[in-house]
Amino acid sequence: MERVIMIKYGELTTKKGNRNFFVNSLYKSILNKLKNYDVIIYKDLSRMYIEFDEKKLNDILKKINKIFGIHKYNVAYKINSSIDEIEKSILEIIKKEDFNTFKVETKRSDKNFPIESIEFSKHIGGLILKNKNNIKVDVHKPDLLLNIEIRKNYTYIYTTDYSGLGGYPNNTLGKAIVMLSGGIDSPVAAYLAIKRGIHIEAIYFESIPHTSLEARNKVIELCKKLSIYTNNIKLHIVPFTKLQEEIYKKVDSEYVITIMRRMMYRITEKVVQKRKAEAIINGESVGQVASQTLTSMKAINNVTNLPVIRPVSCLDKLEIIDIAKKIDTYDISILPYEDCCTVFVPKHPIINPNINSCIEMEKNIDYESIIKDIIINIETITITENEKIEFEELL
Ligand code: ATP
Ligand code: MG
Description:
Helix content: 25-40%
Largest sheet: 9 strands, mixed
Bound molecules: adenosine-5'-triphosphate, magnesium ion
Structural class: alpha/beta
Shape: elongated
């Protein structure tokens, strides 16, 4: 009997007007992820079916587990929609299964099939009871649930439905720039944004020689982990040293972090515009550090009108760490290399900065021309799961 992987879309199907768009995006996403596995994929409005080579099933399922937009999936036997064939297949399937109790559930989406769903479940249940000893029906907690989906040309029979990652397919809900430090929070924020179908590019501020190349490599490694969930990730590396040194020299020490972050937002906004994105995403979490009080966020956010999305803003650190471990970024994030915030962090950063004070202090810095220069010198690389491709591209 031939088997196929059956994909169920879940949340996508609630988007009536855009259903085709979401389904096609998911189709492209799956096709792309499985391009090296000789699969054939076909789809209808509620399901996708993947024909596969049995030898490659485990590897294919590993990939499926990393694709957003899949609500549930199963590995189903695919047979012709004839009563005879369904009966024969059921008998073969139950021979392979070990169970004491069972239940049959039929879904008949092809109304030309001559027997109604409930009737057919009863019929198949009777057939199973006749052909296997010491078993009985349990409709509440069966050991074995036999699902029979009768569709137009084919019928699909499966026992276990697995949960997919959920979310929306890649690149379905616009593009944003994620501020990616080497820390724990921002990769999790990036992952959650990808989950909502946002196409992300990353921006990383480095202050060589105050920060090391290892710190940069850490961010590249994080991008590799994140690109498992996308095709690839563009990383914009910002030479931040000059501006950071200026801030350090010319700003009251308690305001250094606030103003540094205002500068980061200004630069990120420029990159958002150049890359035709629509929002900034970062890993700020309310209350975690001085720059993440609501008053600080207000003072920092004040330099841009763009939406700033903070996917982890209301999660506890432990909840963020749980996700970081799940997506395998945690071990990279805790490597000890300094990032530019930690290098310049003052003893007593202000927790309730005043916007006018920020503006006053910023008058001492010729930041507009420095930022212009920085933008020209941003280095952009494209990163895939297994490699880093140098990218010759001016922003
Ligand atoms: P993370 O764990 O993500 O580093 P954090 O708790 O250390 O976050 P901050 O250092 O205050 O918090 O940074 C808050 C957010 O600002 C980060 O989550 C990230 O989105 C962004 N950010 C901070 N430093 C950088 C950097 N060097 N490059 C890019 N983004 C940065
Ligand atoms: Mg940090």
